[in-house]
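Why run this: before we spend reagent on co-expression, it is cheaper to look at a predicted model of the complex and decide which construct boundaries make sense. The entries below are exactly what would go into the expression plan.
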Amino acid sequence: MKRRLTLYFPREAVHEPITYRLAVDFDIAAKILRAQIAPNQSGTMVVELSGDIDELAAAEAWLESQGLGLNRVPGQISIDRDRCVDCGICTSVCPSGALQCGAPAWQLTFHAQRCLVCEQCIPSCPFAAISLVLDPS
Ligand code: SF4
Ligand code: SF4
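The model came back. Tokens follow.
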């Protein structure tokens, strides 16, 4: 599973080897998408974490215990209703139930508040109706 996070580093945490600890302690790969951290100053980093869902939750708790602020959703999933044919394929890969399609309407419903922004649904759609819209930086 993938999850994008914005991490806010307090000044005392900027020297922590965060990505190393995530790999060694939680088996999580951290891909840095954006970073703005100057020595001895607070900073911001946008990362994409890949790993087991339970380990991701444990890693987030550990990051917060280190004094980092977390924003879990720097982007959001968008469904293009003009492309979607309500086939329901994407619902089978959604781990959180954010995508649902069933009786009586058999129309795709997206529950944004449940979405983990794991992006597993994006490649599953044969009509390219799902995309990730990043927040402006
Ligand atoms: S809607 Fe897509 S991005 Fe959101 S949790 Fe489901 S599979 Fe993941
Ligand atoms: S897989 Fe694509 S076309 Fe099918 S219900 Fe999901 S968004 Fe719509």
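Residues 77, 93-96, 98-99, 115-121 surround iron/sulfur cluster (ligand 1) (CB under 6 Å). Residues 2-71 form a domain with the Alpha-Beta Plaits fold (CATH 3.30.70.260). Bring this page to Monday's planning discussion.
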